[in-house]
Amino acid sequence: MKKKAQSISINTIVVAAIALVVMILIVMIFTNSFAGFNRSANACESSGAECVEECVSEGPILRKIRNDLVCYGPDGNPDKDKVCCQVVG
To answer: How many DSSP H helices and E strands does the chain contain?
Structure first.
């Protein structure tokens, strides 16, 4: 009597792998694991700008305030007293 081998199809393995990745992403979103990435992506210093109390152009050096970037204090929280200032040109 011959026995037939049973195997899982490739399609089932691919679907299971995709489902696992989706479940991991959902867990990361709900546990706020992306907070560190978000903080580094919108940090003022990561864009080559600097955090200062006042953004002033000096002579031929033009500066502009970047409202889309955040200045973080030493405690890791946004520093409301500073603005992100970047040299233009």
So the answer is: 2, 3
Domain that holds residue 27: 10-88
Number of domains in the chain: 1
69 found inside a domain: yes
User: How do residues 45-73 score in pLDDT, each as one tens digit?
Assistant: 888 888 888 888 877 777 888 888 888 88
Single-letter amino acid code for the residue at 2:
K
User: Count of residues for the chain?
Assistant: 89
Taking the C-alpha atoms of residue 43 and residue 87, their distance in angstroms, rounded to an integer, is: 16
Positions of E strands within 2-89: 50-52, 62-65, 83-88
Specify the pTM.
0.49
Contact 40, 54 (CB under 8 A): no
Indicate if the pLDDT at residue 37 is higher than 60. Answer: no
